[in-house]
Each structure stands twice: as structure tokens, then as C-alpha cells.
Amino acid sequence: MLKDLFEAKKCFKLVCGAGNEDAQEVERLVTIYSLAGCNFFDLCAKPEIVDAAKRGLQRAGIEKDRYLCVSVGIDGDPHITKAIIDQDKCVKCGKCKTVCPHDAIIELDKYKVKKIRCIGCGQCAKNCPKQAIEMESQLQDYKEVLPKLISKGIDCIEFHAISTDENDVMDKWNQINEAFDGMLCISIDRSELGDKNLMKRVKKMLEVRKPYTTIIQADGIAMSGSNDELGTTLQAVATAQLFQNEKLPAYIMMSGGTNAKSIELANSCGVYPACLAVGSYARKIVKEYLESDDLFDNKEKLSKAVEIAKSLVNTILKD
Length: 319
Hints:
Helix content is 41%, strand content 18%. The chain is an alpha/beta fold. The chain folds into two domains: 2-75 and 139-317, TIM Barrel (Alpha-Beta Barrel), CATH 3.20.20; 81-137, Alpha-Beta Plaits (2-Layer Sandwich), CATH 3.30.70.20. It is globular and about 55 Å long. The two termini are 21 Å apart. The model has no long low-confidence stretch (mean pLDDT 93).
């Protein structure tokens, strides 16, 4: 069971991307990382993406002890935003395409966003010299989408509670609790709330949950872990330490800027998360293989991709 992995602190979660709607890439990611020993997968909240992940598990031939989580967001959460380019302001300088880490900007007659690949990191908007790019929330009707996802046999729902609207957060949280009786995850960081209000919110959310049926995903800086450096994971460790010190009846998972050095830094600070979630860095190190159309037919390529992924997974799970 998923709970057993958290109890044993032997859980590695691959973040395929809450906004990643590229089914082909998700299937390849799940295949590679499942073969590498990853046991938990975070997916975009789309039924077709859950299907893609299941195909990946089937390709790997390892469906036992592998668990799927879908991420849902709220207005203001960067994970559910998509970039939109204002063609009247765009001067076609190409900076957005250069900085996009997920190859979501395509050049046709104009620069456009391939929405299924946009993960909401906002790098294009930050680097646009003409402020021609905006990030727009892609909101979902929970009452419509949750039953479809749950019917797919998911193991966990992750709620990105990054918002200043307390009433909206609790309304969405209650909807999720009413719809799903499995493991839930609260993904939250310190970007919108001070430490005191952050803790107050999480404690309020835990009041409606049985002890240790909830994961707290302590986010550092969302979608910032593409470099394997200690500094990028610092905020994730600090946020995890905040929750660990409160001794809450929930499992702590680190994310947001995480990489191969995250557990090393956490443990040196006396922080011992039950799980580490890695997204940007995990996807980056196998990127060339994700772009290979013959990945599943070329055993040598697949083997090399798995070897690279395994080096990351083993680094995390050995500690």
C-alpha cells in the first residue's frame, strides 16, 4: 500500500507535471522511471493522462507497488496556469522559446504556445521584453472531473492550496474529501502566506482527516529544480522543517526545487521526509530520450534512459 511506503520512508515521487498534458511524454516518463525503481507518480488531472501513465506501467511490466496521484489546483496556483502570447505585443524575438524548459513554445508564422506541453513555470513571461505573455489559470469543475479520475483507479489526489482565498481553499478541500476516501496530499509553499498563517491553514485542513491519511507536500520554489545544486533545494528543506517541528499527524514530502542533493541537505539539517518528489530535474536528465520516437523499440536507448533515472532514484531511496 502507498501508506506503507511513507511509513518506511522509501518513497520517490516523479512529478510528471500538474500541467503536463502530453500523453506521449507521460507514458515514456512513467515507463523509464518505473523501471528505475520509482514507486509514486504525480500526474495532470486528466483521464487521458492517467491512461497514459497506466500504459507506461504496463510497458515496464511493473504495475504492483506503483501508485498514481493526480494534481488539482485552485485559482492563483502556478501549476495550473498556461502561457498565452499576445500577438499584438509580440516582436518575435524568440526569447520565450529559448528559455522554455519544456519546449512548449513553437514557431510557425508566429510564436505560439503548445498548451499540452506548458507546465505553467512562467519563465517565458518573466523573460519577455515586451510583457507580451500572460499566465492564465485553467480551472476545473471538481464535481465534474473528480468522478472521472477516481473511476480510473487512482491512489491519491494532490490539492495545490497555493492561494490567499481561505474560503475557496476550504471549499475545494471539502469537495475533494467528499468525493475521495483515499490518501490526500496538501501541496503548499510559503509564497503567499507567512509561517503562522501557513500552519494555521494546514492544521485546519487536517481537522477533517483521520491521522496519517494525509501527505503534506512541503514545496520550496515551484518548478525551480532543473539544476542539481544545494541552493535550489534550500527552501524545500526549510518548509519541510517547519512542518516536521509541528509534529503533525501527516506524512511530510519535499518538493519544489528538489534534485539529487535534496535528501543530503535535508538530513544534514535534521529533516527526514517520508518521501521526495522530483519534477524538473528528473525530467531534464532523461529529456533526450523522451524526445526519441523509437524509445520503446530501441532496447539500448531505453536501457540508457533507465540507467540515468536509476542513478537519481537510488540516490534518494538509499538514504
